[in-house]
């Protein structure tokens, strides 16, 4: 029997136990910090030469020259031709749906005029260049290429640069094919903190970008934090999580498999089920025991469920919703009869999967919304990756003569209240000039 | 004569000189880092008791109990009644305009249904609680209270908590009055890294929030970086900057004063003018020499102009626009005859002040758009503070039975391609269930 914790919101120590269950602090120790700081210094100082050295050291192949680091567009296209037709069709279908959803997220500028002719507004522009980090080796996920690249291209980013390490020189055809179908503009076979540094500062061969997105190991995450400010970054993600809220009416095998689908990512992944039907919690526990031995990734799933999984008994629906809002999960399944009746009461969640037929896995690949989502309760203040992450805004102010004269009076009073007389006089000039 | 650098885009070393001029790296040294880390540890461990100790040590007054740390709403209202009527009217006018502009930034959710009944969408919700840091002492700016607080309230943040240090127990009536008119819900007389830690983790008396915004010194900035992840933060700002693009037709005294208005903030502030009219650059230089001796903050202005100011000669309008896009300035004045004809070519800027009558100072106080803007070239990838910083999004997916059956095929192919069979089986269950 897999030991998965059982909690009840009625327990006197529930608050302490749930806090304990959710506790997660990513630690990048001093050694990692120092290694990353040195790699960044080297790449800034020596450019391509440093990239060649690190690739040789960490990825165990030695580029003859910096030109060898680039994966030409023809190579991405070749990968597209090489993968099985079923995978090509699936990637195409997924890309199309992700693109269609992303189109709804595009925002455009606006402005309004006041009676005196003053114009106020907001101009929206895409980033010039974005960089997409894609992990190599075992954790190379083509779906992640689609999810990071497509919103950038929909936003209008002129140049999207992908970096992907190729340990021992090995290329992942599915990843290259995904890059092809996503519209990646240039790709380079580099990885680790050195790739992040190259994207942030540029080298002779790698163009510097304005923002770096995409998942990576602790070195990549630490490097992203370090270059933040020089460039933008997306969130540094914690382990993946799912919270299933179920009324007891969904097949317990389905729910068990949904919990597994999160737990199979890694031992730190978190799978939680909350229901007010105690019998249902028992049935899901039985399904877990029955199905676990049939899973390819049984050991990882079992370790994750033991360490960070839970079945939570709530008092009722309202109580379950409170649990969901407290956890603010990355993925939330509302596996209930009428999800539309309650979705408006969910205040914090990365993505909400509504109804018994919406397996979270559909969202991971092809439903349309992004699978890059806020983890570790950060849905309290952050959003899924989206087109808006590749657009930015500029405020617009155009004061008419009359408007300027009027505004300058208010500005002058407040500026003098703050002791900033150059501000006041700069405003007053326009007031006088308009009279 | 004030020595302000003269550059020309035609100079062979222009790229190196402009890069040198813009170079800015905020350094929080190891000592600051360690002090902040210890303060955060103490506040997490000892809560209110630590806040009382630090207030006593750093602000030189000793609260009798934690209750003394709160500034009751009645105290904010009293400040509102106490300030001169002209300031009250100016704050009210500014607040009203900032609110009206912010209302345009509110976004709401959307959804669409596909032919098979599958629903996709995005739900938009406000943060539950936000924390606003307001510096005390000399740099206490009431305008900054309005600019940070009003977008949060417009977004629908249920509880907005302000913290403001009161060195030697001294309260700034204008700041409290601004908090009153902005709708701040609770205020506490605490500051420094300890206030940021209290907002991030909560204490017995200070409610933990979901995001911390607002300016502060190096300790505050370092603390914000440290708690990022536990809570959201706004950008950590660098020195303030202005770039004026002028066609030579604006009164040179006005432009000189606009440059001063930025330079008077502090010695690191950056004021740059670019024009293709060499004679105009000379006339502004003459205005600078003429007006500087009349300025209250002459020494700061002079130091800032010497260290980081510049007059740049461009070849023509197109060249000047290239300069602006490279600098990606926090504040951009387009002091030209027809700004609307060129604003669409500005790709990167925090706020754009269009036309001869739009002094940047109007935007600092009362035009409506936010004065919290991306500095140090970060306008390449980030935006003014706005309502969107206090809202977040959740993706919505509700697959119909038919939709689920269809999507599960694609998800299954891609999941198996990634070796994630629990994902595949979770999707497949729904496909089978629908048949």
TrEMBL record, chains A, B:
NAD(+) binds at residues 133, 194, 217. PROSITE patterns: HISOL_DEHYDROGENASE. It catalyses: L-histidinol + 2 NAD(+) + H2O = L-histidine + 2 NADH + 3 H(+). GO terms for molecular function: histidinol dehydrogenase activity; NAD binding; zinc ion binding. GO terms for biological process: L-histidine biosynthetic process. It comes from the Bacteria. HAMAP family: HisD. This is Histidinol dehydrogenase. The lineage of its organism: Bacteria, Pseudomonadati, Pseudomonadota, Gammaproteobacteria, Chromatiales.
